[in-house]
Design a protein that fits this description.
Elements lengths: L6 E6 L2 E6 L9 H16 L5 E6 L3 E3 L14 H19 L5 E5 L2 E3 L1 H8 L2 E5 L3 E3 L13 H8 L2 H10 L3 E2 H6 L5 E3 L4 H13 L3 H14 L4 H15 L3 H11 L10
Helix pairs in contact: 1-2, 3-4, 4-5, 8-9
């Protein structure tokens, strides 16, 4: 595994634990974003990793971008647009990964930090965590996908309210509006994320990949096309050893021994 200066990467039992370590608030500066991209690329290539848990160190998940780095964008409209597009490409890598990413939101999750969490496939938040997109308070808007993903995860009206007011909500409220899957006590956060990840790693990586593509690609397609995509993946899996093993194991009333082929 590659060593990073602002990211702690550990792999245990087919689960990668990625922890942002950039005190005091785990801001996403240029170095952190570069290392995050390198880390994601590495994990996407590693077939032994079947799920990824992304979290922050201390009392912060990620408090957002390093605002001081924005000062060089004044009067540079094209450069600012390219900066946003670069961040979107990075976050798209997470969303389009062939293995699930789970955000374990341990504390303040703001701006680019919430945008990063929203690009993950699932989100678990501590009850007292603070989530929000406060960019309008700076006279800007979210640029790493926040306006698009928040509306898709919740609804248009709620997304507009949160973005236009810049208000923060806690983990409990985030669960109520569908922004996070679960809100739990802080000391149970990683355990809950690990339980979900462990359940996924017991499945065939082929069916996990098929689920991710069917849901994430299909949701933006007309229903008829989405159903066709689902049927295509359903059919392809019946040409794999894992499907034969899974069905046979069920009939024989024993645990399946998947080999990811």
């Amino acid at each position: 595994m590659e060593n990073f200066s602002l990211i702690n990467l550990q792999v245990r039992e087919n689960v990668a634990y990625v922890t942002i370590e950039n005190p005091p608030v785990n801001a996403l500066n240029t170095t952190a974003l570069r290392e995050m991209e390198q880390c994601i690329d590495q994990l996407n290539r590693d077939s032994s990793v079947k799920a990824v848990i992304l979290t922050g160190t201390g009392t912060f998940f990620i408090a957002g971008a390093d605002i001081k780095e924005f000062t060089h964008l004044f009067g540079q409209e094209e450069l600012a647009e390219q900066t946003a597009l670069k961040g979107q490409v990075l976050y798209n890598k997470i969303e389009q990964a062939e293995k699930p990413f789970i955000a374990a939101i341990n504390g303040a999750c703001l701006g680019g930090g919430l945008e990063l969490a929203m690009s993950c496939h699932m989100r678990i938040a501590a009850n007292e965590a603070k989530l929000g997109l406060p960019e309008t308070k700076l006279g800007i808007i979210p640029g790493y996908g926040g306006t698009q993903r928040l509306a898709r995860l919740t609804n248009t009206a709620k997304a507009l309210e949160l973005i236009l007011t810049g208000q923060f909500i806690d983990g409990r409220e985030a669960e109520k509006i569908g922004l996070v899957n679960h809100s739990v006590d802080a000391d149970q956060l990683l355990q809950k994320a690990a339980e979900i990840a462990a359940s996924i790693t017991q499945k065939s990586s082929l069916s996990v990949k098929a689920v991710l593509e069917s849901v994430l690609t299909g949701i933006d397609l007309p229903l008829e096309e989405g159903l066709a995509l689902e049927a295509k993946h359903f059919g392809k899996l019946f040409g794999t050893e894992d499907t034969k093993e899974g069905v046979t194991a069920f009939i024989e009333k024993r645990p399946a021994a998947f080999k990811d082929r």
